[in-house]
Design brief:
There is one protein chain. With 161 residues, the chain is mainly alpha-helical. The chain has one domain. It is built from 7 helices and 2 strands; from the N terminus they run E-E-H-H-H-H-H-H-H. The chain has a two-stranded antiparallel ribbon. Helix 1 runs antiparallel to helix 2 and helix 3 crosses helix 7. The chain is globular and about 50 Å long.
């Protein structure tokens, strides 16, 4: 009995063999989430919050200091002061114009109990947007030892309290 065939990812396979998709990496998951956040084109610019949460959660010893500091500034302002992504983006631009060297915050071992995969699994719309905000809070929590440093930088560079 012949098998029916279908085209799957540049190769012909038989219907009796169902190919398995490779699991997405966190970077691929973030890229997928970015399609969603950038497509929204809303004035709050929730994409910035996703960028900051992902950068802080995935940071390694090879990550640039500015990347980590900007991510933590964004998380602090979003979680503790309810800044929109657009407001955070403006703060990042102001900081970048004023300073060229950045301190190195300690990277916590655990960086939140919500992952980009869980955010991506939330239904698009209000549920996913809320998942992004929850993700930010989840990632910011383990960075609390860096809170005073972030407050100091914002106060000394931009007079933000």
């Amino acid at each position: 009995m012949p098998h029916s065939s279908q085209y799957y990812r540049d190769e012909w396979v038989t219907a009796s063999f169902k190919p398995q998709r490779e699991p997405m990496t966190p970077q691929q998951q973030f890229d997928e989430l970015s399609f969603y956040t950038l497509e929204k084109r809303e004035p709050e610019f929730i994409h910035q919050h996703a960028v900051d949460a992902f950068a802080a959660q995935q940071a390694t010893s090879a990550t640039k200091d500015i990347t980590i500091i900007f991510a933590l500034v964004g998380l602090y302002l979003a979680v503790e002061h309810n800044y929109t992504g657009r407001q955070v983006q403006r703060i990042h631009m102001q900081l970048a114009a004023r300073r060229k060297q950045w301190p190195r915050p300690e990277l916590p071992i655990e960086r939140g109990n919500i992952t980009v995969a869980e955010v991506l699994a939330a239904a698009p719309g209000e549920a996913r947007d809320q998942a992004i905000h929850n993700w930010c809070a989840s990632v910011w929590q383990p960075y609390q030892p860096s809170r005073e440093l972030i407050q100091y930088l914002l106060r000394s560079e931009l007079d933000i309290t």
